Amino acid sequence: MANIFGDKWTFTSFGESHGAAVGGVLDGVPAGLHIDLNMIREELERRAGKGTKGQSTKYQGVSPRALREPDEVEWLSGVMESDEVTKDKGQRGLITLGTPIAFLIRNRDARPEDYEWLRHSYRPGHADKTYEQKYGIRDWRGGGRASARETAGRVVAGCIAKQALRLKGISIHAALIQVGAETDPAKFADTIAAYQKDGDSIGGIIECHISGVPAGTGEPIFNKLQAELAFAVMSINACKGFEYGTGFEGVTQPGSAINNISGGIAGGIADGTDIVFRCVFKPTPSTPKALVHCTSSRNTSGDQPVKVGRHDACVATRAVPVVEAMTALALVNLVLL
Amino acid sequence: MANIFGDKWTFTSFGESHGAAVGGVLDGVPAGLHIDLNMIREELERRAGKGTKGQSTKYQGVSPRALREPDEVEWLSGVMESDEVTKDKGQRGLITLGTPIAFLIRNRDARPEDYEWLRHSYRPGHADKTYEQKYGIRDWRGGGRASARETAGRVVAGCIAKQALRLKGISIHAALIQVGAETDPAKFADTIAAYQKDGDSIGGIIECHISGVPAGTGEPIFNKLQAELAFAVMSINACKGFEYGTGFEGVTQPGSAINNISGGIAGGIADGTDIVFRCVFKPTPSTPKALVHCTSSRNTSGDQPVKVGRHDACVATRAVPVVEAMTALALVNLVLL
Amino acid sequence: MANIFGDKWTFTSFGESHGAAVGGVLDGVPAGLHIDLNMIREELERRAGKGTKGQSTKYQGVSPRALREPDEVEWLSGVMESDEVTKDKGQRGLITLGTPIAFLIRNRDARPEDYEWLRHSYRPGHADKTYEQKYGIRDWRGGGRASARETAGRVVAGCIAKQALRLKGISIHAALIQVGAETDPAKFADTIAAYQKDGDSIGGIIECHISGVPAGTGEPIFNKLQAELAFAVMSINACKGFEYGTGFEGVTQPGSAINNISGGIAGGIADGTDIVFRCVFKPTPSTPKALVHCTSSRNTSGDQPVKVGRHDACVATRAVPVVEAMTALALVNLVLL
Amino acid sequence: MANIFGDKWTFTSFGESHGAAVGGVLDGVPAGLHIDLNMIREELERRAGKGTKGQSTKYQGVSPRALREPDEVEWLSGVMESDEVTKDKGQRGLITLGTPIAFLIRNRDARPEDYEWLRHSYRPGHADKTYEQKYGIRDWRGGGRASARETAGRVVAGCIAKQALRLKGISIHAALIQVGAETDPAKFADTIAAYQKDGDSIGGIIECHISGVPAGTGEPIFNKLQAELAFAVMSINACKGFEYGTGFEGVTQPGSAINNISGGIAGGIADGTDIVFRCVFKPTPSTPKALVHCTSSRNTSGDQPVKVGRHDACVATRAVPVVEAMTALALVNLVLL
Fold first, then answer.
1. Which of B235, B253, B247 is closest to B11 using CA atoms?
2. E strand map for A31-170
3. Which of B122, C210, D295, D323 could be cross-linked to B129 through a Cys-Cys bond (beta carbons 3.0 to 4.6 Å apart)?
4. Structure letter (DSSP) for residue B174
5. Contact yes or no for C282 and D201 at CB 8 A
6. Does the beta-carbon distance from C254 to D195 stay under 8 Å?
7. Of A240, A331, A135, residue with least CA distance to B227
8. Which residues of chain B, if any, have pLDDT below 50?
9. Mean pLDDT value across residues A18-27
């Protein structure tokens, strides 16, 4: 079930970046949950690279993708208009019915001609070649399912999960804590801008804090809480590592020094304190500076130069809401029902 | 399904450290597979902390648990005696029937009286308290399911998985690559011995190399190959992090420098080259030096001093075969059937 | 996972009869499969009660629902236009990409005002009351998910499954074999017409023949082939029973007489011969003649008379393609991959 | 997962009839449940064909298998001795720990020599041939996994499930309601004895009543309550059909007559009234009277005469506790957690 996440509150994802739409179906959402459409719109804008409000996202404004029109969610089933619309101007709401919630976001920006050069080429560091190895055919008109656009559906599903978790007193906050070697958030925007200007890219580390998870959540053997979180977060493109508690750096510290740093989990089970984990995102491999060549998929024409138009100097910035979304989808399967 | 791993080649684990036995049931193993009992015995000895042969395990000889009698596997179903027994002295073999393979290992070393002091105490850094939070009752006579003994069943199951994978040309080799700050394997035994003598403990990093995984293995969205591996490995006690490819250290390198380091996976799918991942294990928190106090579970008697008898100065050494076993169980679900 | 069928070739169903659309997502469909859109259109017409061609469906022409415009399938993802379009006039085709196939069918016929009387009433023999018991809220504007319209998505998914099975040499043919006490198919149309005229309804028995299932398909213990088929077919509205081989009537025959009638399955596993099963559908409970009263959901106004507009005198006729679809979805999970 | 039943309260079954043991592992059982060992012993005796007490089982006394020693359950994990032992003489009890409950029943009666004639033969109406088709090898020394002995594990697991259900006010009672054409229970024993004496066998119908299932239990689309029950019951050897509510006989009754007979389920969801279903069991095909020949598996020696020693004239009698067990295992996955 490669495109289904969760076994109780399942999210089925669909859609190619260059096809008609991306979207998904949520099954198992309880009836009567209020969906805040403003929150979904804001999260989709964070994912699209638009800074919204607050210090933590202002460096996201540099993304060249931010100029696009906002993604509009079309609801197909599982919800009806809320009678309890909030009073604030422009706010609308939906109420869940307990039946599957299907939604889609039309692709309005598909420009297959931009990708014509990829018809017979594999980009290094991308999934072009492995997709063809797996499926025999490959849709070269954009990244297809491997495109970051697929994460729009995750963000919508994650928003609904967050709203269900909030009713249980659980909140999730992720933030970029490192860009390259830089750990001062005040300098992240400048750091990224420098790489952007240089035609290069850089990685980042995201830290996620979860509060309110009831003690006892998680399972003691295979489905440990940390294993569920790692599985969720490692499914995000470009994520290369996951750690919690003392993590990798803890390797140099003796047991007598660190045994009270649990990261909120003991024996796979939440202990009721805040859960903290970190994950690392590699820089995007497709940059103007990367003077590597694509490998021809036809073995006839030799390597071809990479043509890079728009590029994100630090994809980790846009991964922040996706990390929150996947964390929410993992948790909602553990604490609800 | 907290004690079941895998959805095709499922491993159901059972057993408390102080109960009658630990063991498991493997379902989905194809008929006609030859099980090498010598290999299982050797892997169980690696897990128990006995050095067997070769440089990579000699530092394991320091474990005080190594003096025990070897674990004996009793086969309950799913196998029959092989007609094709190998010629070497002492070798026996079994053939699988295609039906569920159930096995058990009797606990001969249970000493509940050693744990009497834990009846009303929670050890720091252990799952004592979270188990009680989850289940309402706790079996204080040893670690119960949270004991490292539970991993004996994983090692047996993992050996059978490895043998099936070997027939597909897939091999898995894990090794300790760091102990504390030490990265020279020649010095690991001395480093660990120093912590042991000091009544303290230290963490370690294990690196795992997988060769022969067919290109195309893994799924592109949620069940990415790296997500499946992380889920498997993060289920091991004391594991605090997982990374592959450029990992956490790659955060400081620009995209123009690292885009050919894939770790054998692109877009969640194996590219046919060797897969390499690392995982970190924290030091055991129960050491003589750790002058911390247990928290009373009764709120009546105040904190109690930790009583530590046997202790492993570096549990990462014994985790090596468990990392291999969980990797094998993850892979066998992806490449077989 | 109440709205997901299958664990390898999964079908996620969504949509209320009175909402925007019904549809589904198929995950696990291999890349490169050709989808015959004409077949899908014909099967949707069978399901909608339109007789198409051939004797077996002519009695379906009596359904008052047959006058509607045909259902149009909109494809959202997972397919691209086939380069190998068949030569016949009007035929179009699609090729699968290996990614999730999402599709929807817009509801053009929603008339909530027809159901206004149901706002405070439960119909006998319908799921009105149990839905409210389960979810706390109920969408009274039509049957919601309990409507037969939900089966349109199953038929589309089943068509794709049938096309995959056909490539493996497997074919599925269901037919009505009994209507009330009548077992002569030549008389089914008249029998149904008589009930229709009388404002009443009648049940039917459908027999399904499956040929080409490879010997060895199915599992010996819990997931017996007959258990998988029963699970699939019993999920269809109004289906009250499933039997295969000697079935219920075989109870009166001694073992010495019947032991060669296997129904194509022995010990849960296909033996390579044709598989034959039967299932029974009850008459629709909402008929003009049914002088029963609805139960008020408000406990205030007393019972209300049932208002029946359109009614199907024999829903079993329209269930035939749904039985085939569910059989195909069950089998495709067992024989592919 | 062919040998695992359920997705929350999972039962993993293992064991061949002629191997060391049969048994199973229950995962997901909540901590603190009291296990009544006397009830388990009585249910195992019902399954073994021993009449215990009360009218409904007295005809079971005719089984020639009833002379064996009782099955003894050995508990490997997941339970500890109860402090609250009941006062009655000979009663013992166990308390569940929340961890996997593993148990086994040793096979003391294996007589492989009785089956030597089967080494190169397939019995008609048995799974001998399909097992060999599926697995390539077959364990001819008894029925292996296809033996009725496998159901002993189901009965133990079902007893624990029943005890959990009882705490929720849910009870399950199955009884034989028809043997051949006979529907008077007072005459079942004589009817069966006549077939036994004649060297023949006969089928039976079992009816199962479930009371106390909360309204709202079950799912509206694929996992309808009736589909889950059919899946559970159709997994029992020799079961050829399942029906509920009006069932197959209802086909001759018009909608105006039957619309209040729900069988306790509407739209896949329990309505809070008693649930009633029926299932049919075929006669055993291996009888002295059945002058059929086995098919040689070697294509060399021609057909061989069937050698039948012990035979059950009506296996439906012993299926009664198995029907209850599978019903309990299905329900416990739907109403608990």
1. B235
2. 34-36, 73-77, 79-81, 93-96, 101-106, 121-122
3. B122
4. E
5. no
6. yes
7. A240
8. 52-67, 84-86, 299-300
9. 93
